[in-house]
Amino acid sequence: MTKSTSSMPAWRLLSYGTINLPLSFVGYPLVIFIAPFYAGELGLPLSWLGIMLFLGRMSDVITDPIIGIGSDHTRSRFGRRKPWIAAGIVMMTLGVYKLFMPEPPVGLGYFLLWVSVVYVGFTMVTLPHEAWGGELSASYHERTKITGSRQFFGLIGLVAATAVPAYVMSQPGGTSGAVLEALGWVVIIALPITGAWLMWAVPSVPANDVSPGVSLRSGLRTMWRNGPFVRMLMVLLLGVIGETFRQTITLFYARDVIGVSNLGSIYLLYFGVGLAGIPAWIWLGNTIGKHRALGVSFTTLAVLSLAMLPLGHGDGVMFTALFAAKGFCFGSLQMLPSAMIADVVDVDAARSGKSRQGLYYAAAGVALKLGMALGQGLSLNMLDLVDFNAKGANSADAISSLAMMYCIPCATLFIIAVPLVWRYPLTAARHQKIRGRLDARRDATAAIVNASP
């Protein structure tokens, strides 16, 4: 399965990505609806919610390496990754039930506990799943298709997840709490079903196809000497902070700056356009390289963000058009970096002779979670500094500050990321040479083993 020339059957490629559909019902509301619900409906302080979200994400700094290395070292008849994914599904279903459907009154401790459980369960599913995907093929271009499968089903899930709020919020008395309850039940039902299908349909990489893992200290030392990976982490961190900062306050911006009452229907368009854009990003990545395709995406997002700065109350049509254009770039922000990380693992394997997919995806996961924590924490606390009221009825100064926060910080971070990713050194040609060395080493090892008495 890991030979450079191998090709996954289309049905198995699609089966691999299915679990991302219900996972989207978790990631989307955690960014969009959690803060409005717990602050606006349950009355928890907005600034403290930002701190709790940050602390919950920071737990991933500890858990991600544990899960990544643990899955690298796991040996079972079900493979390295599947036991972790199964355990994560159980943890997530419990956490989602408690976090999305709390029984008031609840406090900050309750929120921190269950958001942390959801985060850890989410990592136990997604990190081994991504590492598993990196092992399914060694081809530079097929890895883009594998991550594209994840993103394809993730965006289908996001389209479905936005249809639920669009319907709920259109009903009399529709609230963020009602939206979270509906989304939560979808996760509780669909996640175990898609997880079971994944386990059955997609084979684990056989133990004789991978080299044993190594210690955390040795792995980290080698990882930080991997120039392309360190650059990729910097780019990932900048992009995630910018995108999460913007997404966290989108509901407030749409409501108080533009005057949009039902953001769910606009998000439905946003993710629908993102779904339609996946083939274009796969094509562009294969044509000019994944790193430069990502640079094009960052540049486009920066321009679109700054174009929103002059908008005001009543500019719903222009906001919707620019927002949908941003949606076209959404898929690239997760699909392309994930495929690039799978490639940089080969650089490490060529140097060390070890297979450390889990460790590398864990490090990328830490950067991702750190970026999300900073994006959420900074945006909510900056709003609190300008006396923004999550329940509405804000002053003109607070609304003006909100508009600038929505447009300028994310655009700035995207612009900084562009030159870093544009000069990314691991091209398709260089990766092909590295894979040639790895395949030759594997063939030589197999020949020695077969020749042994």
UniProtKB/TrEMBL annotation:
Belongs to the sodium:galactoside symporter (TC 2.A.2) family. The chain crosses the membrane at residues 21-39, 45-63, 84-101, 107-127, 152-170, 182-202, 223-245, 265-284, 293-311, 317-337, 358-378, 398-422. One of its GO terms (molecular function) is symporter activity. It comes from the Bacteria. PANTHER family: MAJOR FACILITATOR SUPERFAMILY (MFS) PROFILE DOMAIN-CONTAINING PROTEIN (PTHR11328:SF24), MAJOR FACILITATOR SUPERFAMILY DOMAIN-CONTAINING PROTEIN (PTHR11328). GO terms for cellular component: plasma membrane. Gene3D superfamilies: MFS general substrate transporter like domains. Keywords: Membrane, Transmembrane, Transmembrane helix. Pfam families: MFS_2 (PF13347). One of its GO terms (biological process) is carbohydrate transport. Coiled coil: none annotated. This is MFS transporter.
